């Protein structure tokens, strides 16, 4: 079971808000929904080359208190870091904690 005392990272939960660009497309903006405490644990890193630049993708396991409003595609922000939620689960189905699998791209 996660230890709430280890949740020392202060994160902002952001959710995407798509609006029309007036030409048939959309513009994605991010709306801050909540500020929350979390435990961030790096799990793995992979490196790739995109457009001649090396990009590293870091996978993290993030533990937070249970919330029912988090979805895949939301993101957690800490300073300039952006962690995109790829999967989430309630580890013991008690609605006390959520474990989030997140990706962070580092250039």
UniProtKB/TrEMBL annotation:
Pfam families: Phage_HCP
Source organism of this protein record: Allorhizobium taibaishanense
NCBIfam families cross-referenced by the UniProt entry: gp16_SPP1
Region: Disordered, residue numbers: 1-26
Tree of life domain: Bacteria
Biased composition (Polar residues): 14-26
Range of residues in the leader sequence: none
Cited InterPro entries: Phage_SPP1_head-tail_adaptor (IPR008767), SSP1_head-tail_sf (IPR038666)
Annotated protein name in UniProt: Head-tail adaptor protein
